[in-house]
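FW: tagging you since you asked about this chain on Friday. Here's the raw sequence from the shared folder, copied in full. Didn't touch anything.
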Amino acid sequence: MTGHADGSLQVVHADEGDIADIVALNNLFAPDGLTLHRSEAFVVAHLQDYQVVRAANGSLLGQVALDEYSPSLVELVSLAVAPDAQGRGLGQQLIMAAEQLARERGYPELFAISLAEPLFLRMGFEESTILRYPEKIARYRAISRSELSIGRKFCFAKRLTATNGNNRPRAFHWP
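HL: got it, structure written out here
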């Protein structure tokens, strides 16, 4: 169970028992272009990058993952909240958890491609352009050229603060 004493839900790292539910929840939104289709093999290979929120009964309410391109570049992917759990702030909790994991891993920046413009702007992300991420463009081309032509999607980026050895924040600066 992932609840707090006050009844709120918490985000935890996914485990092997979550794989099928992660695939199902993610792919529920893929036909509408809200997520990219994910295979079980993808989730297994990236399981350490997934975080989830579960209901008291263990059912998956939401998920998010980090997808590393290089030691200095990571994308927030597979953000999904079950339809019956939407509107409860879980998306925000999941984004904050992904940011925290990215900080812990030392990434200077986190980016996302999404239709959820108001959510990402509320969470402190800035509008960006996919042109800043040739690695992402290359992956889209490998998946499907149509992903590059979807005009409704927005690119967002957020500078992250990492901690140095003294646990003091260290700001990263973009050129």
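FW: The helical segments are 19-28, 40-45, 90-104, 117-122, 134-143, 145-149.
HL: agreed, and The chain is about 30% helix and 25% strand.
FW: great, closing this out.
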